[in-house]
Amino acid sequence: MIRSLCAAAFGGLLLLLIAAPASAETKSFNNPMQGPNRLDWCHSWGTGCGAQAATAWCKAQGYPGGATTFAIANDIGASQPTRLISTGAVCDQAYCDGFANITCTRPDPTQVFNNPMQGGNRLDWCHSWGTGCGAQAATAWCKAKGFANGAVDFHIAADIGASTPTRLISTGAVCDQAYCDGFADITCKQ
Fold first, then answer.
1. How far apart (Å, rounded) are the C-alpha atoms in residues 120 and 133?
2. How far apart (Å, rounded) are the C-alpha atoms in residues 26 and 3?
3. Dihedrals φ, ψ of 92, to 5°?
C-alpha cells in the first residue's frame, strides 16, 4: 500500500514537472487599490470573498493566471474605505475588509508538453484516421488545453502504437498497431 502511494505521488510529481510551464511572471501588490479605494475582500457584497475577488482583480491588471496568494486586511473600512471589484460600491464601515496583499501571475505564453496524452493514451499524430496529421492534431490538442494560438512546434514519436497505443483527438479511437505514430512533444502558445 505504501509503495503504491509513493509511486502515485512520484508519478503525480513527474506529471507536474513535465506539463508545468517553464516560467511564469509573478508580481506582488501591497494594499491593492480599486480606483481611489482599497480593494474590498469580496467580489460582490458578502460573496466571492478572497480568491474570487483577488483573481478578478489580477485579471483586470493584466495577469490572466489570476491570484496565487493573498492576505486579508481586517476591519479597515472606517479608516480606508474598500471598493467592490464587481460593482464599484464602497464600504466605509469598520467591519469592511480589504486585501493586505495579492500576488498575481502571468503564465509563460508558451508551454512544452512531453509525450502528450489524450484520454489515458498517447496523443495520435493524426486528427482523424490518416488525415490532419501533425499540425492539425497538435493545434486541436493545444486549443483543447486552453492555448488560444494552438501549437507552435511539435515532433513525431514514430511507430509507437504496439508498445504505447495512441488515441485520436477527433473521435477518441485507439491505434495499437506498430505503425501508429504519436507526438514526442508539443509546444503550445497562449
1. 20
2. 36
3. -120, 25
